[in-house]
Amino acid sequence: MVNFTVDEIRRMMDKPNNIRCLSVIAHVDHGKSTLTDSLIGAAGIIAEKKAGDTRFMDTREDEQDRTITIKSTGVSLFFSLNKDKFQTRQREIAKVNLRTGTKKKERETAEFKKKLQAAKEFIPPECNSAFTEKKTGEEKVPFLINLIDSPGHVDFSSEVTAALRVTDGALVVVDCIEGVCVQTETVLRQAIAERIRPVLWVNKLDRIFLELHMPAEEAYQSFSRAIESANVIIANYQDDLLGEISVIPEHGTVGFGSGLHGWGFTTHTFSYMYAKKLGLNRVETMHKLWGENYLSKKGKFFKNQYNTKTGKARTRAFCKLIMEPIAELSDAVMQEKKEVYTKILENLEVTIPKDAKDLSRKPLLKRIMQTWLPAAQALLGMIANFLPSPVKAQKYRVSNLYSGPLDDEAARAIAGCNPKGPLMMYISKMIPTNEKGRFYAFGRVFSGTVATGQEVRIQGPDYTPGRKADLHVKKVQRTVLMMGRYIEQLPDIPCGNTCGLVGIDQYLTKSGTITTYDKAHNFVDMKYSVSPVVKVSVDVKNAADLPKLMEGLKRLSKSDPLVQCYTAKTGEHIIAGCGELHLQICLKDLAEQYMKGAPIVEGQPVVSFCETITKDTPKDIIGKSANKHNRLYITGKAMSKTLVELIDEGIITENQDFKKRARIIVDETKNEIDLQSARKIWSFGIEDAKQNLLVDMTKGVAYLNEIKDSMKTAFQQACCAGVLCGEAIRGLLVEINDVVLHADAIHRGAGQIMPPMKRAIFGVEIASGPRLMEPMFLCDITVPMDGLNGVYQTLSSRRGEVTEEISKSGTPLTQVKAYLPVLESFGFTGLLRENTSGMAFPQMIFSHWNLMMGEMYEEDAKLKKLMPVEGSFAITKAIEVRKRKGLKLEMPLLEDYNDKV
């Protein structure tokens, strides 16, 4: 039975100190959705005994069939904790935080003692909302938890990005055997970039006791490696404004347990059991329960594992006091030794639930463990005590979230989480409704209150303050609370909460800003960790269904944060995704949900390439206008990897102050471009070709400013579709060395400037060692030693390159990391499983762009000009792309693009 009503949730929404917004993030198959069931079961939405089996947050049929999460799903839950215990715990944390990093001498000062006294008397703001429970008369602190379960498969990373943007904390789940994997690192890095505070859950401990029967010390080492790996990632991407966010078991920011069986604990859980016996306080006990703390047979603690006198080994406290009792209980239940486990349960003061009396072995063990160490209790403790409320989080997140000045009314309201300030809400994704073709606009209210019938400004990603482009002023039809598989209607929703809006979807493509403040700037756009590099063409069987396809593609584009749907110049309808599985799901959604049963025809998946240059242009390339009155002299330079990354990561942008941008370029690239030239950057590329620069190197050219816009537009068009095969150019720096213009303005219009500029850029590309670049996946494969040969065989047959091989201590598993061309990734998973008898499972994530093997052009000694290299792998691929795009099959020549004086 549900432990709360919608009215209770609405009342809690007005208490932002007691709200926690969190995402559950992890690598695929590490147990996020089963773990989430524990919290949902504790809230009464599903039966607790079914927690772990229900996968309540997997709302789609294909999610249940594939047993993976595809779409991030939100739910709001109401919980309460004992007031005295919560307050005591908060004071303990305050004292630990105060002592951490403080030297012994400093602890003797009056100032420190004053702070320590304040920590001892600290009253958490959450306690101001305490209530007395009618049944027990116990004082409780209420909490509203807005939880989002996100996918673990790398192909759906964009869903994780959308979830992280609207939350303040992250529950990072790690398999205790596999440890931190490629996607764990990706999502944790994303979380820290969004200034989201993590806590860690080491999952699947049931495997330690029931499947692997791993010795306690070996299990400890496995957990320790996972925690250490997570902390290395946290340290690498640490943000000063977030403060200390390492996950530390002895502080209580790491939980251990089994999501599938619904049990778990932190060191704080066991500190209640052992503090009195050990004659220590709870904080001291927690510190003894992890790390280099060993117990002698007499129960004394030592820092050394071995007795210096006798040489006998001591047992680690974590193993002796936590792992061994669980192992003892598990063995007794699994071996059906009723007398043994009954006595253990009596000592633990645990009663077997009535509904479990007739169970035996694993089902009985599951119910006993759920009763003794409920996972929800450990999770709630970590969430309530260590993850920030919107009031705390928005203070340090505002500078990352808001694109406008940090002293305007909107920024101040966001930083203060002010329900009476102007409405500032970010829509991070669209969720399909039961009504075909309509969507809930899902997001987070950062300030003000959003209400049904309220008139709001809907600002799309291209909106600029003061202009009307990408701006709509409309009314919100309904405000709804997302509850996993269900929705609940509410009249209004204040800041600090996530919700869905009805009636907004037709004015936003994917994401945007909702506000009532007429001077508001947009929220910063989300940065995705993956790119849509895999494409497929779709068409209809019957021409009469073409309007349905066009509408279906629009809806598909809206439903997924990353997918791109567009019509190519050839007239093909293209869907671009970030991997094979992502495309499969998109095509399934298009056919089943958005095409209303009309059959579609799918083309073969294809891959986006990039064009680049590898050397500087040897001499000026000339572009002459059609009327022969204007001449442009340009050259090209290959940009360094560092400069390309500065653009990729948004460290330098077109809208930056030109002096500040120039200084960053000079400092970061070690004078690749001198300061004067860096200040004269005219333009960046656009869309997928933004990693290109146009620089004015001219001196004293008359009328140059009049043609600047025409040259910029021509540059951007040329970069979007290069000369080799119409793919985006990457890493090209074009220098305008000289320009000769007609004195009469009518003879130097856009029609006279753009074509020669575009032609000259193509000439620069051909003359500067052009190459094709292909996208590369980082492929992470976990396989037993027996299957290792099959992995190497499969990778070498697909042009893969192994970069690392790591043996996982304590297991027969080996982790292989390799780079695999995206072009070779289709059917790779099936082939790998075939070659390893189903033992290997790969995870692939976009890594980087790499030069494709094979030169494109070489100097012909007889003809004394550049000619395409016949039979080159890169030329073959370029011709395939040209054929698909309807371009001439002959490769272009420099003479066609370099005009004579």
From TrEMBL:
<dbReference type="InterPro" id="IPR005517">
    <property type="entry name" value="Transl_elong_EFG/EF2_IV"/>
</dbReference>
<dbReference type="GO" id="GO:0003924">
    <property type="term" value="F:GTPase activity"/>
</dbReference>
<keyword id="KW-0963">Cytoplasm</keyword>
<dbReference type="Pfam" id="PF00009">
    <property type="entry name" value="GTP_EFTU"/>
</dbReference>
<keyword id="KW-0342">GTP-binding</keyword>
<dbReference type="Pfam" id="PF03764">
    <property type="entry name" value="EFG_IV"/>
</dbReference>
<dbReference type="InterPro" id="IPR009000">
    <property type="entry name" value="Transl_B-barrel_sf"/>
</dbReference>
<dbReference type="InterPro" id="IPR000640">
    <property type="entry name" value="EFG_V-like"/>
</dbReference>
<dbReference type="GO" id="GO:0003746">
    <property type="term" value="F:translation elongation factor activity"/>
</dbReference>
<feature type="domain" description="Tr-type G">
    <location>
        <begin position="17"/>
        <end position="391"/>
    </location>
</feature>
<dbReference type="GO" id="GO:1990904">
    <property type="term" value="C:ribonucleoprotein complex"/>
</dbReference>
<dbReference type="InterPro" id="IPR000795">
    <property type="entry name" value="T_Tr_GTP-bd_dom"/>
</dbReference>
<dbReference type="InterPro" id="IPR027417">
    <property type="entry name" value="P-loop_NTPase"/>
</dbReference>
<keyword id="KW-0251">Elongation factor</keyword>
<dbReference type="GO" id="GO:0005829">
    <property type="term" value="C:cytosol"/>
</dbReference>
<dbReference type="InterPro" id="IPR020568">
    <property type="entry name" value="Ribosomal_Su5_D2-typ_SF"/>
</dbReference>
<dbReference type="InterPro" id="IPR005225">
    <property type="entry name" value="Small_GTP-bd"/>
</dbReference>
<dbReference type="Pfam" id="PF14492">
    <property type="entry name" value="EFG_III"/>
</dbReference>
<dbReference type="InterPro" id="IPR014721">
    <property type="entry name" value="Ribsml_uS5_D2-typ_fold_subgr"/>
</dbReference>
<dbReference type="Pfam" id="PF00679">
    <property type="entry name" value="EFG_C"/>
</dbReference>
<dbReference type="InterPro" id="IPR041095">
    <property type="entry name" value="EFG_II"/>
</dbReference>
<dbReference type="InterPro" id="IPR035647">
    <property type="entry name" value="EFG_III/V"/>
</dbReference>
<dbReference type="GO" id="GO:0043022">
    <property type="term" value="F:ribosome binding"/>
</dbReference>
<dbReference type="Pfam" id="PF03144">
    <property type="entry name" value="GTP_EFTU_D2"/>
</dbReference>
<dbReference type="GO" id="GO:0005525">
    <property type="term" value="F:GTP binding"/>
</dbReference>
<keyword id="KW-0648">Protein biosynthesis</keyword>
<protein>
    <recommendedName>
        <fullName>Tr-type G domain-containing protein</fullName>
    </recommendedName>
</protein>
<keyword id="KW-0547">Nucleotide-binding</keyword>
<dbReference type="InterPro" id="IPR004161">
    <property type="entry name" value="EFTu-like_2"/>
</dbReference>
